[in-house]
Every structure is written in structure tokens, then in C-alpha cells.
Protein 1
Amino acid sequence: MGPPLSPRESARFVAENSRDVLVDHEGVRRAAELLLPAAAAWRVEQWKSLHELNPRGADEAALGWVFLVDSLNFSFWAEREDSKCAVRYGGTPYTGYWALCAAVNRALDQGIPITSASYYATVSLEQVRDIFRSDTAVPMPLMEERHRILNETGKILLEKFGGSFLNCVQKSGRSAQKLMQLIVKNFPSYRDEAEFEGKRIAFYKRAQILVADTWSVLEGKGDGCFEDISSITMFADYRLPQILVYLGALKYSDELLKKLLKGEMLLNGDKQEVEIRGCSIWCVELIRDRLLELLEEKGENSPVEINSVLLDYHLWDYAREHREDMKGVPFHRTRCIYY
Ligand SMILES: Nc1nc2c(c(CN[C@H]3C=C[C@H](O)[C@@H]3O)cn2[C@@H]2O[C@H](COP(=O)(O)O)[C@@H](O)[C@H]2O)c(=O)[nH]1
């Protein structure tokens, strides 16, 4: 089997052959109109200014933080919405993805060098359980997998990149695509691939968000000045499909919706799981295209930066802020290390 299709081509192929998930083109246009006012204000600097747990710096340590966090950036959803893992940091309880960031910052404050490859390459399961411990009775999911990934990833970073993700970034020669390929080639836990209708496809969600967070922590400057950042697609997680359905840009068949409302699990790689993820990526590509058209029509001359990364970030934050309103729309439950 040859190399997989790129995430964008994989998304197009899935959307063209999907049966249980549909991109609603009228919904795409409405979503773009709804997002247009906010889109004019999107800036790469918001990754820091809007999120207090993200690193302030743009140095090697900040890159080490991003690499560690994105190596563990998966599967935070709780079996029951009313009892979930939470990590208190600076007096605030954080849940989901933010619980991971809070636990990393808590460890660093306690003098545990959790972002150093020489540490996490040999960290023990007991130490990992303690570092990522929840302040509720519900632990963070997939703790054993997180431990295995820390050891595997740390060892590879030491062997191939001198223990520094900055070295990996510098090998990419300011190309987002080259950095993504370096990541999936060298780090097995990032190989988010599948088979669909006889073709090998790839969504590379964690590799793409790692490239995006690298671009963001470096504020699009120096080693992070990727001239092809616009070629990175949205990150196919379990939150974005939920908000795309909520906005009416994505539609599920009655059969699939019934399954999700019952809370049935989908296996990573299942046909319906691939359709949800692939159609979500394609849907965001189309919303991005429509936003660019609308800005063109408006003759918007302010230096607006519209790409799928900033659109994804905004939709993800929007989903977090509108959790209550979105309660009626189910997210798909898949337990895996890829998203
Ligand atoms: N598509 C997309 N998926 C994202 C993120 C983020 C956070 N990204 C950084 C970028 C902006 C902020 O500044 C953050 O620093 C996490 N996730 C995914 O969501 C899920 C966790 O959800 P919940 O259980 O509700 O916390 C899980 O699969 C996680 O991998 C994103 O931005 N886009």
C-alpha cells in the first residue's frame, strides 16, 4: 500500500463517498456569514492572549511544552458528562484538553521537568499517574497509553533530535508540510491513518495541530514563519463535528444520529467514524473558502489572515463557550490516541 492521501485530499475523497454524513452547502454559507464579523479579528497572537495556560514565550522551552502537550492531546471526553476529570490550577478547575495543560503547568511549578525529553523518556507509570492526577474521583482517560507514548516519544526525540523539538522544527525549513511529514515519519503515535473505500487516507490530527501550535507559539515568526501554513487543514477531533452539526453545516443520517444519541462507541477507523472526521475537515475547508469569498466581495482591505488553522481554533473555542447550547447535539465517542 502506497503513502496515504494528504488530509485535504482524504477529506475530499471521504466527503464524495460518504453515506451517513453530509456536508450541507447552504449550512456552510450560513456558517461563513455568522463567522465573518469575528473572522476579521483573528490573529495568531490570540493563541497566547486568549489562553492563560499556553506558554508566554517563543523559545526552546515553549516549543518543548507544545511538543509534550500535543503528544498527549487526545481523548479527554468523560463517560458521563456530570463526572469528569478536572485539574485545579491557580484556583481554577480545568477540564478536558485544558486539564492536560493545567497538569503540565502544575508539574513544572513543582519542579518536575515534565517537558524535558530526558525526563519523560524514562518516567514511570506511577509518576505519570501522579503528574496527571485529577482533583475529582475521575482520572484522565488512557493513562497507560499516555505513559507508553511519553517513553516512546521521549526516546525518539533524544535519539533523532538531540532531545529538542526545536531541532525538528529547524529541519523543516519553514515548511508546514515538511514539518508534518517529519513528525509522522519519526513519531509512530502521530500516524493517524485509515482505509476508506479501498484507499489509504490520513487525517494526521495531532501532527497538524502540533504544526499549528508551533506556528502559534512562535507567533508566525522566525523558525515558525511557515509560508505554507494555509495548507494545514482543520484538526479532526470529537468537538468540531459537534459544532459543525450545531451550526447546520454538517448533517448526520437518522441511523447515525440515533446511534450517537444512545452514546454508542465508534471504533477508530470504522466507516462512520471516518465519514464524520473526513466530512468535518472538508466542511471547514468549504467554510474557509466561503469566508475568503465574502471578504473579497466586501473589499476588506485590512490585513485579515483567514486559514483553516485560525478558523479551527475559533470554532473550537466557540464550542467550549457554547457547551450548554450544544447539549442536544451528540459528539461521537471513540477512545483512541489520535484525537
Ligand atoms: N479541532 C481542535 N481540536 C482541539 C483543539 C484543542 C486545543 N488547541 C489549542 C489551540 C487553541 C487553543 O489555544 C488550544 O491551546 C484540543 N483539541 C481536541 O479537542 C478534544 C478535547 O476537547 P474537550 O474534551 O472539550 O477539552 C480533544 O480531541 C483534543 O485533542 C483545537 O484547537 N482544535
Protein 2
Amino acid sequence: MNPVSEAYRSNHLQPNYIFPLDFESVEDVVPDSHTWNSPLNMFDIDESSEHVIKSVAVPVIDLDDPNAVKLLGQACETWGVFHVMNHGVPLNLIKDIESESRRLFSLPTEQKLKAIRSTGGVSGYGLAHISKFFPKKMWSEGFGIVGSPVEHARKLWPDQEDDYFRFCDVVEEYQKEMKKLCERLMSLMLSSLGINTEDPNWTGSTGEPKDAQSLLQLNSYPVCPDPNMAMGMGPHTDSSFITVLHQNGPGLHLHSNQVGWVEVPPLQNALIVNIGDLFTILSNGRFVSRIHRAGVNRTRHRLSVAYFYGPPMDVKVSPLMKLVDPDHPPLYRSVTWNEYLAIKAKNFDKALEMVQIEDGKSIA
Ligand SMILES: O=C(O)CCC(=O)C(=O)O
Ligand SMILES: [Fe+2]
């Protein structure tokens, strides 16, 4: 038996929603396990038109613009997604994270499987976490990093110290820059809602500010023989406060109730930001998390790098006091990120509804 099949077999206890397809062995057809050909009936999306519109442009926010706060607020209220320019993240670092990511995913399958993530774990190689909610598998592979990447990097490049050092250096630098950018964006977005981040309690905590939590997720979408039949990443909303995304080519699709699926191609030197469910709760529904997904293509190996930024795990997130009054009663009960992830794991597309307050009571 070849070593890859052996590795898949010897890990048979791992649920199969963690294992990506062995893309090295794919020939000219999309296997039935990866053929998305029936309606999903999720998020109440109208599935009659799968056509992806390319001519609608999401807002572009230049952080050097004196009107950035106002424009950011408008973009968050209307779109929930925007491109950000003059974000301060060195462009070379974005190139470097992309090339390190390519280096990782170009390793032989057998090697990547040495860093497979554990059941219930977040860090390591594997299919995106949301794969268990879909009847068919996604045409992608991912690598999650929480905190230091050293442990998994050493498994990927066991005899090449320079290789894993280089990977870790770039990842750590990127995490640092992303954290800085997310803190800045959060503060500007809250200002647009009239919230001063110097107010204590803005995340619900008192005393010493605690460190936000984050997850860096590298995504790889190999070329696909029949892109119309496959899905890179199924429709979902992110659970974070905000997510910052870099993509090396088109593939991100955003859902709009008015027009359906809209493609969000990369914009040179810009990053994409989208609102996650926890910001919807924090803003009492003013900024809404958008449903998005990733398509695949026939000729180009697409890579994306997503940084999910959220509150410290034990901090309760609830609608900000300043946004609640008799005309705007609280729409959501308070939850920690951990609690919310558990609710999402059970209810997926209905997770936000589960923390909604109806007649003064929540249903979860
Ligand atoms: O690759 C993309 O464009 C989307 C990735 C994404 O939505 C995610 O990682 O949550
Ligand atoms: Fe996402």
C-alpha cells in the first residue's frame, strides 16, 4: 500500500471531515464525495440562481482618508465586508505569508498528514472546520495556527531547521501585524458607532485589558477539473469579531439577498475585512456578518490567508450599553467566544438565532 493510503488508513479513527482529499492522486474527474449537486437549504438562501455576479464592487476604505471612520461605518452597515487600503501591513510580509503557505501546501501529502489536527483541535493540517456541516466534502485543505506554529512546523519540516524557522518567523510576524491592524479597525469601527474604546467595559470586561484571541488559517484550493461541480469552502459566516483576508486570486463569493452571489476579487495592495457574528452581537445588530463561500477554478492554485480576531475566550460579549435604549432593546444575550463556538457547532447557520432574545428571553 502506498504511504499516503497507509497514513489515511492508520488514522481511520479520525473522523473523515478532518481529512482533505489526496489532491496528488486526483485525475480528471471530481469524485462523487466532492460533487455539490443538490440544494443545501441553509441560511434561507434562494438557491434557484447559482450565477456569480462579477460587476458589483464592495466598498474600498482607505485608512489614510480623513473620512475613514464615517465610510467604514457605512460599509459595515450596508455590506459587512470591505477592502482596506493603507492598512499598514508591509506588502512584503503579505507576499511572504503567501509564499510560505504555498511551500507548506506543496509538501507531499504524506508529509502534511504528519501535522494533521486532532479531533476537536484547531491547530494543524486538515479540512476547514465547517466541513462537517455539509453533505459533500470541500475542494480545499487548510492549516490552522493558534499561538506559536512551532510544534506543527517541526513535524512538517523535521530535518530542515532553516525551513521551519523561516515558516515560523513569517507566521509570527504576520500574526503581530494582523493583531495591530485588527485593534485599529475595531477601534475605528466602534468610533463609527459612537463608542469610545477608552471606555472601560467595551468588551464586557473590567480591570486590566486582556489579550484578544485569534486564529490564523491558511487555505489552499487546488486546481479543479470541474469547478462548477465543486466547492472550495461552503457558505458560512465567521464567528469572530472581524476577519482579515488575503487572497491571491478571485474565488471569494459574498451573498446578498438582493442580487445573490457576488464575487469579491482581490484589490492590489488591499486586504479584505468582514464582520463576524460576535460583532453583530456587540453592535446589537447594526453590523451584520455576511454569508460567504469560496469557489474553485480550473487553472490556478488559489491560496487565502484568514486571520480571525475575537475577544479573550472567557469575556462575555453582549450588545454595547450605548447602543441599547427603549427604542433599541438588546437583540442578543451575552456569550463568550467559547460558548458561541459550541452553539455554532450544534446549530451552524442558525447559531445567531439561538442567541437572539425574543420577548426578553433567549432560546439557547
Ligand atoms: O478563501 C476564502 O476566500 C474564504 C475563506 C474563509 O471564508 C474562511 O477561512 O473563513
Ligand atoms: Fe469565512
